[in-house]
Structure formats: C-alpha cells, structure tokens
C-alpha cells in the first residue's frame, strides 16, 4: 500500500499513459499504478545504485519486468524525448526538481504532464513551471505523521505568472481550501517567521527588499490563517478548472 503522499501523487496520473518515475527508490508508485490498471507501462529511474537495485528486485518479484523498465540514471537524462507521457518527481528538493527538468529540456518539452512533490522550495518549483511555458492545473495536500506535503500537477500551456503570495501558497490550493489547508498555512507561517527571526538575529547588513517581502508575506499568511482573505483566484494565472482524472490536460 502506498503512503498518503504517494497515493495522492498517484491520483494525479492520467489513465493509460507511459509513466516516468524519477527517483523511484522501491518502484512502489509504478508497481501500484500497474496493479490498479491505471497506466500502460513505466520507466523507473534512480541515480543511486542501491535504490536502482532495490527497484529492479521489487519489479522482478512482482513479475512486472515486461511493463516496468528500471534504469540507472540522472533524472530525465535516462529517457529519450517522447518515451514517457507523464513524469513524477516525488520526495526531492524543489531546486533539484528544477535542475533535473532544466538539464533535459527536450524530454521535458515532449511530456504531457508533470506530477511534482517538492520537499522544499515549492514556490520556486511553481515559478519555474510558469517560466518554461507550463501552468498548474491541479494541486493537493497530503499529511503523513506531522508533515504536510504539497503536490502539484502541471501541464504545457502558457499562463500569466501568479504573484508571490500565490506562488507560495499554491494557486489551486488557495482556490480549493481543502481540509488540510489551515495546517498548510500554519506551516508556511512557521517557516516564514523562523526565516524573519534569522534576519533580525543576524545583525549584519540585510537585503531590505527581501526583508520587506518576507514581512508582507507573513502578514498575508496571518490574514489567511484568520480567514480574513477574500475568496477568489488571487491572480493565479489559471482558469480554476481542475482535473477530474483520465485526461491528458
């Protein structure tokens, strides 16, 4: 059985696609998606020898070698353009996700969708998505123990860049305000206040513009936490239409 985080990621994968699972580890996600009949086949990629061998063994034990091709490689560089329809990047830092997408622009451009679960720097991932001419079609939150994870489903298609607050919170998360939203805002507030305290404690020349932006972000998050923000899309650059599953976006 998948964890809540990976189960949420699985829900974003359209039906009948070829999946690339980047940083596959135990290959749990492609194995689950094949067992449930959601995908045609998969390419499972890991950059480290240990997880690569673990994934190969798991696929072999499930008798799925015909449908899951396990590869040792660095991100999308292990794929040729057009080999996969959708790529999943889960459980790695946001800056690493951006770097792996940037390293393989032709493979990225040939994809129809990206399922992204950054551990950190989610706002930087969202910004990069819009920078390369894609946009966010759907988002969700998942909780495991005391952690709240943000999951993003992105598709090709130019949209206006959301503002800083919306990039931080998530355009669809802000529009939906699902059950875990208050915990999401609380975590963003905690991190932002910790960062601001670090600025103030450092007693060195600081970037006043960054300090101002961070202070403004905290104020907006506090208003959101108190539910004083007006409803609306917040300039999220999307049409507020979310996926119902089964399409390619």
Descriptive labels:
249 residues, alpha/beta, seven-stranded mixed beta sheet, 43% helix, disordered C terminus
Short description:
The protein has 249 residues and is of the alpha/beta class.
How does this model look, in words?
This protein has 249 residues and is an alpha/beta fold. The chain has helices spanning 4-12, 28-35, 49-61, 94-103, 105-110, 122-131, 164-169, 171-176, 181-202, 208-225, and strands at 18-22, 41-46, 68-72, 86-92, 113-118, 134-144, 147-156. The chain has a 7-stranded mixed sheet, sandwiched between helices. Strand 6 and strand 7 form a beta hairpin. The longest helix has 22 residues, at 181-202. The two termini are 27 Å apart. The model is unreliable at 230-249 (pLDDT under 50).
Structural topology:
Elements (H helix, E strand, L loop, with lengths): L3 H9 L5 E5 L5 H8 L5 E6 L2 H13 L6 E5 L13 E7 L1 H10 L1 H6 L2 E6 L3 H10 L2 E11 L2 E10 L7 H6 L1 H6 L4 H22 L5 H18 L24
Helix pairs in contact: 4-6, 9-10
């Amino acid at each position: 059985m998948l964890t809540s985080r990976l189960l949420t990621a699985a829900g974003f994968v359209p039906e009948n696609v070829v999946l690339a699972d980047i940083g596959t580890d135990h290959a749990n996600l492609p194995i689950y998606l094949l067992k449930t009949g959601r995908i045609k086949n998969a390419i499972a990629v890991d950059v480290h020898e240990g997880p690569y061998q673990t994934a190969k063994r798991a696929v072999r034990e499930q008798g799925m070698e015909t449908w899951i091709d396990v590869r040792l490689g660095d991100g999308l560089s292990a794929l040729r353009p057009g080999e996969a329809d959708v790529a999943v990047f889960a459980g790695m830092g946001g800056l690493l996700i951006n770097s792996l997408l940037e390293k393989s622009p032709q493979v990225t451009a040939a994809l129809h969708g990206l399922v992204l679960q950054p551990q950190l720097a989610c706002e930087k991932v969202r910004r990069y998505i819009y920078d390369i001419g894609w946009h966010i079609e759907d988002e969700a939150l998942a909780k495991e123990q005391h952690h709240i994870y943000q999951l993003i489903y992105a598709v090709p298609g130019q949209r206006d860049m959301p503002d800083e607050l919306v990039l931080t919170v998530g355009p669809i998360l802000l529009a939906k305000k699902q059950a875990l939203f208050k915990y999401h805002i609380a975590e963003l507030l905690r991190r932002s206040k910790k960062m601001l305290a670090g600025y103030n404690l450092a007693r060195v020349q600081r970037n006043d513009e960054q300090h101002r932006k961070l202070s403004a972000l905290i104020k907006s998050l506090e208003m959101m936490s108190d539910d004083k923000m007006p409803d609306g899309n917040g300039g999220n650059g999307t049409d507020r239409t979310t996926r119902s599953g089964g399409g390619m976006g």
